[in-house]
Structures
1.
Amino acid sequence: MLFGQSLFQSVLDRLDTEEEDKSEKDEATHRVRGLNVSFVATVPGGERTASARPDDAYVDNLGNEIPAPEPEPEEKEPEPPAMPEHLARTSREEVASELAITPQHTLQQLHEKRRAFAKANHPDGVAPPFRDQATMRMMVANQLIDEAIRRLPR
């Protein structure tokens, strides 16, 4: 502490005097030494850089012209997917024979059959043209499994 001043006040006074000394020495302290030129490169011939092609230097070093890109081959329409054979079997008897539900199946086994059948036949897992058949198969399978669950002894 200097003569009744707080530490904070003495620091503020010292900063003020340092700032006054700097402003008297150099008015242009905001500039960085050595960076008084622009970063824009000059192009021979007086062209503006925006009009110069940036790949010209590469072509000059290469000594050859850049080959024209080859045209892309035309895309052919993909062939429609073939319908899996099991999606053609949509009748109740055909789906029941695939599930092979017996009275001896437990609730857990019936749930496993439902999951396995859905994994192979769910409409989200087949191509869009065959979703109607997959939906029909899932509806029939769910009905058959629900009926078998209702018949289970409690």
2.
Amino acid sequence: MRKAKLQLDAVKAALEKMLGERVVMDINRGRNKFERFEGVLTHLYPGIFTVVSDGKVSSYSYNDILSRNIRFCSKK
């Protein structure tokens, strides 16, 4: 349990560095379907973070990153 807490803190620290920047994410929609999503990382909350793209706000859990359902990738 302690190791998971350390990993979660590392994810939050990494996202704090990207706050306010444009990010590109690959989101796993299931059955090997990935969707590329680009937006601005706007807010960090205790359980979730929000990304705004084209005026639409989407929220994601930090656990989505730990379980690799969301991957941050470089802009191509």
3.
Amino acid sequence: MECTVSWTGALGTRSGMGFVAETGSGHTLVMDGAPDAAKPENGGQNLAPRPMETLLAGAGGCTAYDVVLILKRGRHDVRGCTVKLDAERADVDPKVFNKINMHFTVTGKGVPAAAVERAIAMSHDKYCSASVMLGKTAEITTSFEFVEI
């Protein structure tokens, strides 16, 4: 796996904290820093997600992928899956995630709660590389609800 991240500055200038990532799979992702009122030249323009937000989103995508795949492989009629992640970061540098809660909302027909719980646990404990890695610094908790449609 590879990725190249390049500083873009702010709207083509060489100030600001904008970045573009070009992934090995041929996709691009734009990131930006938070604006800095005290030193505007050191802050972002708030035009894209922060890098740490992108990391959190990647963990959510990784685990949601697993949950859907595990449920589908179990021949469950899953129709939707969302995961809302709430994270807390350390107060001092490096400001790693120290707590993450992942709340899943799974929709479908006749999917047993035990199957959803098992799929989440399997993702969390075994398959989702991103959450296993983040679990080295963060306490990760999960919760879910199933919505019958």
4.
Amino acid sequence: MGLNKYQWGAIIAALLSPAVFFIAKGNTTTPSLQLPAQPKPSNNLKAFLIMIQYAEGTLGVNAYKTFYGGSLFHNLSRHPNRAITKGGYTSTAAGAYQILYRTWLEVQKTLNLPDFSPISQDRAAIELIRRRGALEDVLNGRFAAAIYKCRKEWASFPGAGYGQGERSVFSLTQVYQSAGGVMAA
């Protein structure tokens, strides 16, 4: 099953997102915006971040302002910490990467993130990938290994086991490659 025209449009919009563009270009001239444990971001990292947004159902122009369940918030000065119940689940997940409030507090403190802006959310997602031991896999195109290692971070990943909808490896691969990600040989 392929992606429809709306999903392709969302991928293109995400590719043009200022925060993803910032990371893809490796703009790390401001010390407070340095990426954790990663000297130069790659196209694989950008593609993996876009793929997470797709998997979590946030891909598109409102990705960074999306609550769990799909409604929007507008204040990006801090994580909204609002528990939303939908489909029998209650979650404080918010933003492009659907980061839980308690997880956000840990990562925000570790990275000294000033707000919940797109750049801060992207940096937090990269830190979560790193914490799962998958950053080198992402950078080197070891897609299956990275998905496996991150499956407990994002409920939408195959094998997450949280009882929520999990995306297929095939659909995640399509998005990743469409966003410029390259698989290791």
